[in-house]
């Protein structure tokens, strides 16, 4: 098993804007899936221009998000292979994000969530072609009553568990494949606020004034 990756918190606006660039974030995510790749491979996978892909890779490397793979003496001399830097990449807690940083992180997270849902649905549609791996769509929903410190500890335990199963290339057993994991937690709505919350419903053919409904808690 590989060791614990170095923790790196990204709060610098320039670095965040570099990663949040749509094409660069797409390249970053594709490298996460492939493990390592050249600019030509990434350009083909993502239907991008090779020259632009090389530029985006250099920008990602400039801020330490990716790194060049040490050259194989038997590889083509001009080939440059890239991989995601082996760090535990994190953003500042929301309460510590500046007014400039917060919308950049919010938009990056929004795109990431949408891409995850799109990929999940795509792979489910293709599950007949996955043989035994069609049973690998595991998900769970639940709720707990935690303090904020307990939730932070829960999250760190989750990260520790993920790192326990990470392996170097020469440790990967036969039959293994890349598995995507996601963690998502959020505070449930306050029951007192839910009782007084109102929603707007537009009734077809009715007057333009919306109908207001009171949400009653069960």
State the end-to-end CA separation. Answer: 48 Å
**Strand proportion:** 5-15%
Helix content: 40-55%
Silhouette: globular
Cα Rg: 22 Å
Number of helices: 7
Number of strands: 7
Structural class: alpha+beta
Q: H/E series, N to C?
A: EHHEHHEEEHHHEE
Overall pLDDT, averaged? 85
Uncertain stretches of 5 or more adjacent residues: 198-218
The largest sheet, given as strand count, sense and whether it forms a barrel, is: 3 strands, antiparallel
List the helices and strands and how they pair.
Elements: E1 6-9, H1 13-20, H2 22-34, E2 37-38, H3 39-46, H4 50-62, E3 66-68, E4 81-84, E5 87-90, H5 101-125, H6 148-164, H7 191-196, E6 198-201, E7 211-214
Parallel strand pairs: 1-5
Antiparallel strand pairs: 2-4, 3-4, 6-7
Helix pairs in contact: 1-5, 2-4, 3-4
Question: How does this model look, in words?
Answer:
- The protein is of the alpha+beta class.
- Helices cover 41% and strands 11% of the residues.
- It contains seven helices and seven strands.
- It has helices at 13-20, 22-34, 39-46, 50-62, 101-125, 148-164, 191-196; strands spanning 6-9, 37-38, 66-68, 81-84, 87-90, 198-201, 211-214.
- The strands form three sheets. Strands 2-4-3 form a three-stranded antiparallel sheet. A two-stranded parallel sheet has the order 1-5. It has a two-stranded antiparallel ribbon with strand order 6-7.
- Helix 1 packs parallel to helix 5, helix 2 packs across helix 4 (50-62) and helix 3 packs across helix 4.
- The radius of gyration is 22 Å and the shape is globular.
- The protein starts with 5 loop residues before the first strand and ends with a strand.
- Mean pLDDT is 85; it is low at 198-218.
């Amino acid at each position: 098993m590989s060791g614990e990756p170095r923790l790196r918190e990204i709060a610098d606006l320039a670095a965040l804007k570099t990663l949040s660039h749509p094409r660069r974030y797409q390249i970053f995510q594709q490298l996460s899936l492939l493990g390592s790749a050249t600019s030509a491979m990434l350009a083909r996978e993502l239907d991008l221009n090779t020259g632009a892909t090389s530029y985006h890779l250099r920008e990602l490397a400039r801020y330490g998000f990716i790194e060049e793979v040490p050259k194989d003496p038997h590889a083509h001399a001009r080939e440059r292979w890239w991989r995601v830097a082996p760090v535990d990449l994190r953003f500042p807690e929301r309460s510590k994000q500046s007014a400039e940083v917060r919308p950049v992180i919010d938009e990056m997270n929004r795109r990431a969530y949408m891409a995850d849902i799109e990929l999940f649905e795509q792979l489910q549609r293709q599950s007949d072609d996955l043989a035994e791996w069609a049973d690998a769509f595991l998900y769970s929903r639940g709720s707990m009553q935690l303090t904020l410190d307990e939730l932070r500890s829960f999250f760190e335990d989750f990260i520790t568990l993920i790192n326990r199963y990470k392996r170097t290339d020469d440790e990967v057993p036969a039959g293994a494949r890349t598995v995507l994991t996601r963690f998502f937690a959020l505070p449930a709505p306050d029951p007192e606020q839910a009782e007084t919350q109102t929603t707007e419903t537009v009734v077809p053919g009715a007057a333009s004034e919306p109908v207001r409904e009171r949400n009653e808690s069960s």
